[in-house]
Specification:
This protein has about 375 residues and is of the alpha/beta class. It contains 15 helices and 14 strands.
């Protein structure tokens, strides 16, 4: 079997709100083979920039479009092809968008392997730790603390036993920050888990103050309160509070994950399969975390392709903690572009068992939302 083509397809809602919601557009990756098997992946990044990384022409030995490197190759050689893409674009893409683009292709290659062998990806990865996995309902904060509490009550009524609120208006005012968390806890109830995603808004001293204030409300973790490169700040924060500190979605390499784990002393390692280098790199990151006694959780605010990939990965590592499952109402694109829809049942997601990723595009809807 040989790779015959690579497509990067940009899809976008007609109207995109200016808020931290990466589910309003997407970059879908298709890898085609001469056996008629097509693999499916996704990139969560600056989508048109990542598209050019994939489809751009050859420039020189260490800066070339990834598609150029893949034509004629065997899609089963995922480790080899990962390194070929990394080395072939190491000048421009050894972090950030370059790794993001590799992620979508890597997911598609594993999808091809699973489809060709008639096995789900988690079996190819050697997994089988779960039949279902606990998830948390992931939402942006309401515009006010009261609105946040109302959303929390609605989500508890839908059967979720864990919830996460994030980003604006957190970080604008100390009193409001605390009231946002208070109302989230009151709305969700005393016996559920509440996570808080601060959204990169504080310095270390402020984050320590907030973590101590939030501990009154028994939060499950405090996520990304600092800038991603502030490893010393993360260390200070982690050592100053008993609240779990979670981070990692901004990372695109196991090398920077090591900085967060070793220097930053975080407690929960968050991995986005569409940003970190796909399955091939995510398995290594999970092993590094396990060696340090740290649990991993996925990040994913995009389509059901990302969700399915995360479920395969979480089922393949012994230190998986919980799955992110977006309930943000403005994230509508994912309800259209794939034939399968993922649904939580009483706070759990089923592990997929179909060959490959177990998800297919709705080509008519893909064309409807195609842009760029």
């Amino acid at each position: 079997m040989k790779i015959t083509g690579v497509e990067a397809i940009y899809v976008r809602l007609p109207e995109v709100a200016e808020q931290c919601d990466s589910g309003q557009d997407a970059l879908i990756v298709k890898v085609h083979t001469d056996a008629g098997i097509t693999g499916l992946g996704e990139v969560d990044s600056a989508p048109l920039a990542a598209k050019q990384v994939i489809e751009g022409p050859y420039s020189h030995t260490t800066a070339t479009g990834l598609k150029h490197l893949l034509i004629g190759e065997d899609p089963f050689q995922t480790e080899y092809l990962w390194h070929k893409m990394y080395q072939g674009n190491i000048y421009a893409g050894r972090r950030g968008i370059g790794i993001h683009a590799i992620s979508g292709i890597d997911l598609a290659l594993w999808d091809i392997k699973g489809k060709a062998l008639g096995l789900p990806v988690w079996r190819l990865l050697g997994g089988g730790f779960h039949r279902r996995i606990r998830c948390y309902a992931s939402s942006l904060f309401g515009r006010t603390p009261a609105e946040t509490g109302a959303i929390a009550r609605q989500l508890r009524d839908r059967g979720f036993n864990a919830v996460k609120f994030g980003w604006a208006p957190m970080g604008q005012d100390a009193r409001q920050d605390i009231d946002l968390v208070r109302q989230a806890r009151q709305g969700f109830g005393k016996d559920g888990d509440v996570m808080i995603d601060a959204g990169l808004v504080w310095d270390a001293k402020t984050a320590i103050q907030r973590a101590r204030a939030f501990s009154e409300f028994d939060i499950f973790w405090l996520e990304e309160p600092l800038q991603p490169d502030d490893y010393e700040g993360y260390r200070k924060l982690s050592e100053a509070t008993e609240v779990r500190i979670a981070a990692g979605e901004e990372e695109s390499s196991r090398h920077t994950y090591l900085e967060l784990m070793e220097r930053g002393k975080i407690d929960v390692v968050q991995v986005d399969l569409t940003r970190c280098g796909g399955f091939t790199e995510a398995m290594k990151i999970a092993s590094l975390a396990a060696d340090r006694g740290l649990p991993v959780a996925n990040h994913g605010f995009t389509t059901y392709i990302n969700v399915m990939a995360a479920l395969h990965w979480l089922n393949s590592v012994p230190n998986s903690l919980i799955a992110e499952f977006v309930v943000q109402e403005s994230t509508k694109l994912r309800e259209f572009i794939t034939r399968q829809k993922v649904r939580a049942v009483e706070g759990y997601l089923p592990i997929p068992d179909e060959p490959g990723l177990g998800i297919d595009l709705d080509d008519d809807q893909l064309q409807r939302f195609r842009a760029g």
